[in-house]
Amino acid sequence: MVLTVIGEDRPGLVQTLADVVTAHGGNWERSRMTELAGLFAGIVVIEAPDDRGEAFRGALHELGGVLHVGVHHAPGRSDAPTGQVITLELLGNDRAGIVKEVAAVFSRHGVSIDELTTDTREAPMAGGVLFEARLVAPLSDATDLDALRADLERLADELMVDITLAAS
Predict the structure, then answer these.
(1) Domain assignment present for 29
(2) Residue 113 and residue 56: Cα distance in Å, rounded?
(3) What is the CATH number of the domain that holds 107?
(4) Which domain covers residue 103, as residue numbers?
(5) Among 9, 61, 81, 104, which is most buried by a count of CB atoms within 10 Å?
(6) Domain match, 122 and 157 both
(7) pTM beyond 0.90
(8) 1-57 tens-digit pLDDT
């Protein structure tokens, strides 16, 4: 199952969640967690015994005063792409719509984004705010990497940002 968690950031949140997972025979498999704007948020993949599902959900619900936890059943990924994985790094002046435009290019090419990390920071010496993003996406064998690269380069020119694309 997949848990989504969010709560006011403070020490001990991960331990609190891990205690509940372990107490109900669960195994913490994968997670992505971060602090953003004073809130702690994350996604956790848990393997838990079916016979403890209701008790586990109840214990997670009781964390509502500390962490709000959503429980989702993971469908798995039966159609996982088998081709290359690309990593895009973007840096430029911050403005509304950058993520929308980049995501639209990937969507038009039928590419699903596996990871996206974004941040803003003060531009050294020049003033203003810089936007930076790192995106990881697997490509299917049918993806035209040259066409995707051309569309991203066109977009970089339009948005006046630097984009680095690496395929592995």
Answers:
(1) yes
(2) 31
(3) 3.30.70.260
(4) 85-167
(5) 81
(6) yes
(7) no
(8) 999 999 999 999 999 999 999 999 999 999 999 999 999 999 999 998 888 888 998
